[in-house]
Design a protein that fits this description.
With 198 residues, the chain is an all-alpha fold. Among the domains are: 61 residues, no CATH class; 57 residues, no CATH class. It is 55% helix and 0% strand. It has seven helices and no strands.
Length: 198
């Protein structure tokens, strides 16, 4: 008597219909509850053979899910890091939007606050100089070249402040008069002329 060895169709639980799941559960319960004396009952033995086919699916599912658990239990292998291209650093800017030529914007703002005596243009020049040398603005301020630039800028500012404004028109000349002998009306008239231009 030769037995046919056919492999039953194996499905995972998520691929089974509700009827197939119920039949599998019943077969598992039958096998678990099978006793030695049940071997004497031919009907129960036939049912056991039918249940064995369904249990092949259970065993396959057990192996499948055990493999998944083992795979997930392994420590993750780190992915190879991608080769990074060298990035060109962005040119930092101050809150006002001016380029600081590689100087930390926070340092630029602090430098401006620490040196209110310097004009905005002079601070910008110092920051650009510091950026080109890749040094702190305070270090750049101590350099003789910067000190000379500040002195020249201050001199130019002083000269501009000292000269008369273009809209100011001086008098054509002052009268040579001895005001000690002038009457109060003449003094008042001269004062009005000077004060009100009339």
């Amino acid at each position: 008597m030769s037995e046919e060895t056919t492999t039953p169709e194996v499905k995972l639980e998520d691929q089974m219909t509700p009827e197939e799941l119920q039949a599998q559960t019943e077969a598992e319960d039958f096998v678990v509850g099978f006793k030695d004396e049940d071997y004497e009952d031919p009907d129960k033995v036939e049912k056991l053979k039918g249940a064995q086919k369904l249990l092949a699916t259970t065993i396959h599912q057990k192996r499948h899910y055990r493999g998944k658990v083992e795979e997930l239990s392994k420590p993750a292998t780190p992915a190879k890091p991608e080769e990074k291209k060298p990035e060109t650093p962005a040119t930092p800017t101050t809150p006002g939007g001016e380029t600081t030529n590689q100087v930390d914007p926070y340092k630029v703002v602090t430098f401006r606050q620490d040196h209110p005596e310097l004009s905005r243009d002079v601070v910008k020049e110092i920051v650009e100089y510091a950026g080109s040398l890749k040094i702190d603005p305070e270090e750049a301020l101590a350099k003789p070249l910067v000190q000379s630039m500040i002195k020249n800028a201050q001199t130019a500012e002083d000269v501009a402040d000292a000269s008369t404004a273009p809209e100011y028109r001086g008098t054509s000349g002052t009268e040579k008069r001895d005001w000690s002998t002038a009457t109060p009306q003449e003094v008042e008239a001269q004062r009005n002329k000077i004060m009100y231009g009339g």
